[in-house]
Amino acid sequence: MRLLLAAILAFGVALPASAECYADYKAKQDSPLRLHYGVAQISDGACGNKGAAKGELAPRLAADGWTLLTVLSTFGPEGLGERKASAGEYFLRY
Question: Is residue 12 part of a domain?
């Protein structure tokens, strides 16, 4: 039993920590035209890949009637502070 517990703990320690990843984007609504800039959390697999980030964000935004225009960048938690004020109410909303 102790050997099994030690093996489980060793395996758990060897797993990499899940990194946080975010994307900043621009979106629009028509009739009347509305635009917004936002920041959203995305999966680790989409980090560094704007196409994958777009695939994740487009359906989330579409559910509220927004059309994703572009993913500007993907970044880690270190980039959140500088984008928070610009994103306003769309900071981590989607």
Answer: no
